[in-house]
Amino acid sequence: MAEPGGGRPVTVSDVQQLVRRKDEIEAQIKACYELLEGQKGVGMHEPLVDAEGFPRADIDLYQVRTARHNIICLQNDHKALMKQVEEALHKLHAREKEKHAKDEAEALAEAMSQNQSLPQAFAKVNTVTPGSPASISGLQVDDEIVEFGSVNANNFQNLQNIATVVQHSEGRPLSVTVIRGGRRVHVGLTPKRWAGKGLLGCNIIPLQR
């Protein structure tokens, strides 16, 4: 069969239509067999002549011949239709499989491009005290810092760079960018005095590269 719609992909609806047609043909075949059964049960192969070679008078020969002819034609149609159903299902499954593989490939490509585009981190948060400015800003343990105000991987030398930025930004929000779970996350951190020690309430360590 030509693919439904002149080359468009097979849909579930196409398969359902083919199955409905198959059911119709099966019903027609059944009706023809019932007709033969009603004609003294002649079936498909019983002779239509009597012992002396004359056409049988006890049955409607025209009806029997027509029913037999229809059964042969319908069975051929049924066989061809079953092949179409099988091919359509195969195409449908193949397309689903292809779509699944494509979705997986796209997700993998996106993950890889994200990893490639992530900036280099220079320090890591290893403790955050609850209730501290760092905690309130949403900073978390294991966040890898890529930008801390004006400090980044290119100009970072030691933790004093961060300490200087913190001291000069007391009471003012600092833009901090971290890598968390393979994604870039922006945090607004305002260094300020609180119940604990320092202006942040977190501990930052340099990353060994």
TrEMBL record:
Q: Which residues form the signal peptide?
A: none
Under the heading SUPFAM superfamilies, the entry gives:
PDZ domain-like (SSF50156)
Q: Where is the PDZ domain?
A: 90-182
Keywords for this entry? Chaperone
Q: GO:BP terms for this protein?
A: proteasome regulatory particle assembly
Gene Ontology CC terms: cytoplasm; nucleus
What does this chain do?
Answer: Acts as a chaperone during the assembly of the 26S proteasome, specifically of the base subcomplex of the PA700/19S regulatory complex (RC). During the base subcomplex assembly is part of an intermediate PSMD9:PSMC6:PSMC3 module, also known as modulator trimer complex; PSMD9 is released during the further base assembly process.
- Family label: Belongs to the proteasome subunit p27 family.
Xref: PANTHER family: 26S PROTEASOME NON-ATPASE REGULATORY SUBUNIT 9
Subunit architecture: Interacts with PSMC3. Part of a transient complex (modulator) containing PSMD9, PSMC6 and PSMC3 formed during the assembly of the 26S proteasome.
Designated name of the protein: 26S proteasome non-ATPase regulatory subunit 9
Native species: Gymnorhina tibicen
Mind giving the lineage of the organism this protein is from? Eukaryota, Metazoa, Chordata, Craniata, Vertebrata
